[in-house]
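Long-time lurker. I teach an intro course on protein structure, and each term I like to show students one example going from raw sequence to a predicted 3D structure in token notation. This year I'd like something fresh instead of my usual example. Would anyone be willing to generate the tokens for the chain below so I can use it in lecture? Attribution to the forum is fine with me.
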Amino acid sequence: MAIEVSDSAREWLKRKGGVATVRLSPRHGCCGGGADIAVAEARAPDDPACYTRVEFEGLSLYIDPTLVGQGLRVNVAGFLGMGHLFVEGVSPTRS
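-- Reply from a regular --
Happy to contribute to a lecture. Here you go:
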């Protein structure tokens, strides 16, 4: 499987429209260093053609091709309906 989605994240995403994007997001350090961190968002990407699309249990997942097959897991945290997605299982990288 290209990516794993927890049961709670799957249900949360279905309530939010059933679409998620998993991509790398640059983070910059104070002294010029940086890392690319995997993030998940409950929306389609701006340019879907640049992503690998996977249909999975009622969800449409758009995954950055460099993250496919990396053993990632999308989960959700939060309470009182104020949740947010996060990605587990990948080390930060620098492109």
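Some talking points for your students: Helices lie at 7-15. The first helix runs from residue 7 to 15.
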